[in-house]
Amino acid sequence: MSSDAATAANATSTSLPRIDALSGGPGGGSDQDLEQPRTGLGASLPAADARAKTEGTFPYAADLWAEGLLWAAVLRSPHPHARILSIDTSGAEEMPGVRAVVTHEDVPGESNYGRHVVDRPVFASDLVRHHGEPIAAVAADHPDTARLAAAAIAVRYEVLEPVTDPEKAFEAEPLHPDGNLIRHIPLRYGDAEATGEVVVEGLYRIGRQDPAPIGAEAGLAVPRPDGGVEIYTSSTDPHTDRDLIAACFGLEPDRVKVVVTGVPGATGDREDPGFQIPLGLLALRTGCPVKLAASREESFLGHTHRHPTLLRYRHHADAEGRLVKVEAQILLDAGAYADASSESLAAAVAFACGPYVVPHAFIEGWAVRTNNPPSGHVRGEGAMQVCAAYEGQMDKLAAKLGIDPAELRLRNTLSTGDILPTGQTVTCPAPVAELLQAVRDFPLPALPKDAPEDDWLLPGGPEGAGEPGAVRRGVGYGVGMVHMLGAEGTDEVSTATVRVHDGVATVICAAVETGQGFTTLARQIVQEVLGVEEVHVAAVDTDQPPAGPATHGRHTWVSGGAVERAAKMVRTQLLQPLAHKFGMSTELLQIADGKITSYDGVLSTTVMEAMDGKELWATAQCRPHPTEPLDEAGQGDAFVGLAFCAVRAVVDVDIELGSIRVVEMAVAQDVGRVLNPSQLAIRIEAGITQGIGAALMENLRTAKGLIRHPDLTGYALPTALDAPDIRIVKLVEERDVVAPFGAKPASAVPVVTAPAAVASAVRSATGRPVNRLPIRPQAAVATAPKG
């Protein structure tokens, strides 16, 4: 794995810049002193903020400071389920240095919020529904005083028995006024009576993966003279956050401004508004700037996680291994609140059969509330869980039929023009067979030598207890898919403005740079269209038109498309006077390397000369074609487009100890078009590594609803030592004609596919079923030696 990019992306600032240090903004400016041999689309343009991040001068929310700053702390419930009998804040209010204490009684507007379903209280009032739920917040003149004051708030609880088993949620007493069932999707496709000659069944469990951002949540709220408030935070969806916050404050949205600071890592919804709303309340109450910097424990308790999932599968196939029918039951544990569970369930049900042709499919999907930690957006939500299960089923079919696992998959792969079990025709490029063949045919890594200097190759490392004779090598496959943009009728739209003056272009777009490379892409688009080398991307805030959330790779498509349209409008403004002067259409003029030339060579001038001191600007929107919700049978054109990936994993397993080392991951991916080669490689490598974490170590464990070890010691993350050789063996550039530039999102589908490939490889090495992620050591211990 490339470590340089990870270092740049995860570096934290050590200085304390003031608020106005954000004028350059995340991704703002350009490093002209960095060598750039090429510009425009297709170039490996470096990130504009790379230098600031590596030097530690980039302003994250945790680094901000303002005059008269107060510090906030939040009191959180120690119980997963309890009735609140009383809240006594007098002990906190009487402490020297405490300026304000707020509870549910102090929320002036809506008491509940939610990006998708408004069901989550700002502060618990009568019931606590999960461990770590906010009860009250304090503002004080020192962070230690704030924490002590929060601890001094006396809350009397009647502890209730938590509902932590999602299967029991159906019969349990309602945990919420909306009930325990969030959504049920019954998908019906084909003939329910169809059967195959060969049938395999499986039960699979997927654990609770945490986004584990390298920088914990932080924010700064500053009161405004008009009675409003400005909030500086690492939001990934600032306009939605603004609207939610304003509703809770009882204010009009234009009196709340959200300014996006640097985002220190995001693999889904980066910042829950539950961190921002108490900050704003305290700032309005005190009339002073208030800052909150969450501890790692608070971060684990407060934000959402990947849905733990229980999956039951039955696959039918003919004697040749061709799929006949897939039956499945999928149960998502949403935790205490709905959040993105409906969307995640739709993806899980729709992709339950994988990128394979299945004539008959009958899937039941449920998302339910429990007293477990809340679940929400994490890369590949829904799709990752079902990929692990259906690929486990494909391995079982291959073993039962005596067919090579890769060959079995190839006999069933989806292609353009095939129909999904939702009834939607696959109209985008779907080179699934090509991807799988590429990783299958890629040379396998050499076997480790039995020399002492190669002991580090053993699972467990150089001082591990394993013996070389107990190590078995396994090769496995994973083939996955994700949807692009939102789904089921989501109105996907983004707005961008491009302004050019004195040879410098500025892009104004509220698409948040979360590490996916949007600001670099925006620079490349303008360079390509206008031939202007110096391009700045303005800081993001809610004074700009909305661009939507930074999920599902949507900013590459929607916001990139808006930037391209705006740049083309400016291009027309630039070229029209020249075309009119020479009696030709603008289509006969081209811009390249900062020069404007005509098709016949009569006209040749520079962009700067053509600008002649003028300021040109244009604003444009991009809105993909609409989708529709799944109906009562799980049918409908719910997705704008699809992206695919195939991964071959090679692992070494100590079959006596159950320790696992991933040796190599070979990746072939459907990318549409490569816009920035180096950034694309980094995104794929990062996605594969995150998937390895889900496969082998990442599991936020709970005991009766209580999060155990909410820290980076108890929650293991893959490090550079855990990252294997990642070989990107093929990138299929078959452009999606309905997507701007023809490109597809690149980050989520490797996360979806990698865990399934690792599990497949462990099955190959051990002969064990491996039906749980992350894979526990006892699941990798072979029952008998394997030759």
UniProtKB/TrEMBL annotation:
Pfam families: Ald_Xan_dh_C, MoCoBD_1, MoCoBD_2
Protein name (Swiss-Prot/TrEMBL): Xanthine dehydrogenase family protein molybdopterin-binding subunit
Record-linked SMART domains: Ald_Xan_dh_C
InterPro entries named in the record: Ald_Oxase/Xan_DH_a/b, Ald_Oxase/Xan_DH_a/b_sf, Ald_Oxase/xanthine_DH-like, AldOxase/xan_DH_MoCoBD1, AldOxase/xan_DH_MoCoBD2, AldOxase/xan_DH_Mopterin-bd_sf
Region (Disordered): 1-48
Gene3D superfamilies hit by this protein: Aldehyde oxidase/xanthine dehydrogenase, a/b hammerhead, Aldehyde oxidase/xanthine dehydrogenase, molybdopterin binding domain
Domain Aldehyde oxidase/xanthine dehydrogenase a/b hammerhead: residue ranges: 55-161
Biased composition regions of type Low complexity, renumbered to the chain: 1-15
